Structures are given as structure tokens and as C-alpha cells.
């Protein structure tokens, strides 16, 4: 019986982390209370501190998970395009700069969605390490380690953030289109 209870506890913990990864991207870290998070996971508020030392600890874990989801998407693109990185990158750019991606922050790029919140965190925040590691891995996937990888991530995250902030205006679509064109020109397939 204890095995089942431990397994259920682990599933519940994973559910909280998954919901946190989604909600933090969707609403921002300050916009998600512990009560909101636990309700979204279908659990009671009181159980939070049995699973996590603090909300800050959960933010770090959820950040790692969000970047893990991004890594899985990138690996799937590589597989879908039979290892042709240029074709995979082109497919990523098509999706990344789409209205669909812009409008689904909860499932979208963690570099964009979490960057503003983490920029306001203390330098020793536990979430900064998984964030930096995730951005670094994303940049490496985009280019072969030169400065182009950093330019690509900065262009992508900046354009998406500005597009989300101006959603509902023609400027929103223009940010996406301009950034897409700029990066696609650097990545001919």
C-alpha cells in the first residue's frame, strides 16, 4: 500500500510542476498564487509545502521543466526532419513566429514568458540557473555556438514578447513577420 501512496505522491508532485510550468508562462510568476496553482493541479492548498520547500523552489523546478518541454520539441523537430537542422530550424521559425504561438503563452517559449519575471529576481534566485541553462541549450540548438545563436534567441524572444504585448494591433503581426524574415534570411534551407 505504501508503494501506491508514494507513487501517487510523485504523480501529484509532477502534476503541480507541470501546472506551474504552464501557469507561470501564461500568467507570470507573481500572477500565480499557491492556491491557484494547487487548484489547477486538482489538489488542496495545504499540501503544497509537503511537496516543495517554497514557491521559489517550485519556480526553479518549473523553469527547468518548461525548458525541458522546449528541448523535447526541438528534438522532435530534428527527428521529423531526419537530422536536417536547417529544415528543423525553418519549421521552428514558422511556428515560433505564428499567431498560434503568440496566443498560447502557457505552452510557449519559456525564454520569453519567464524572462521578465526572472530578470526581476535576485541574482542568487534558484530559478536563474535552470533559466540560463535552458536559454544556453536553446541557443546551441539554433546555431553552432557562435554569436549567431545569441542573436537568434534575442531576436526570437524579443519579437515574441513585443508581439504579445501589442496583441490586437497590426504592430503585433508586424513584429512576428519582421523577425521571421530576418532570421529566415540567415537560415536558407
TrEMBL record:
The keyword Transcription regulation applies. GO terms for molecular function: DNA binding. Residues 33-52 bind DNA. Keywords: DNA-binding, Transcription, Transcription regulation. Gene3D superfamilies: Homeodomain-like, Tetracycline Repressor, domain 2. The keyword Transcription applies. Residues 10-70 form the HTH tetR-type domain. InterPro entries: DNA-bd_HTH_TetR-type_CS, Homeodomain-like_sf, HTH_TetR, Tet_transcr_reg_TetR-rel_C_sf. Pfam families: TetR_N (PF00440). PANTHER family: TRANSCRIPTIONAL REGULATORY PROTEIN. This is TetR family transcriptional regulator. It comes from Actinoplanes nipponensis.
Amino acid at each position: 500500500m505504501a508503494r501506491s501512496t508514494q507513487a501517487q505522491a510523485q504523480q501529484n508532485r509532477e502534476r503541480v510542476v507541470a501546472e506551474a510550468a504552464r501557469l507561470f508562462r501564461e500568467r507570470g510568476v507573481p500572477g500565480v498564487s499557491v492556491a491557484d496553482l494547487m487548484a489547477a493541479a486538482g489538489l488542496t492548498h495545504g499540501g503544497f509545502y509537503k511537496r516543495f520547500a517554497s514557491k521559489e523552489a517550485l519556480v526553479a523546478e518549473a523553469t527547468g521543466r518548461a525548458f525541458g518541454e522546449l528541448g523535447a520539441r526541438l528534438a522532435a523537430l530534428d527527428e521529423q526532419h531526419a537530422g536536417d537542422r536547417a529544415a528543423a530550424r525553418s519549421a521552428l521559425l514558422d511556428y515560433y513566429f505564428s499567431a498560434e504561438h503568440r496566443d498560447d503563452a502557457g505552452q510557449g517559449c519559456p525564454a520569453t514568458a519567464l524572462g521578465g519575471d526572472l530578470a526581476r529576481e535576485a541574482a542568487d534566485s534558484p530559478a536563474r540557473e535552470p533559466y540560463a541553462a535552458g536559454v544556453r541549450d536553446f541557443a546551441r540548438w539554433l546555431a553552432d555556438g557562435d554569436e549567431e545563436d545569441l542573436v537568434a534567441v534575442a531576436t526570437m524572444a524579443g519579437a515574441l514578447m513585443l508581439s504579445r504585448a501589442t496583441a490586437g494591433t497590426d504592430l503585433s503581426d508586424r513584429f512576428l513577420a519582421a523577425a521571421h524574415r530576418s532570421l529566415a534570411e540567415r537560415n536558407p534551407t
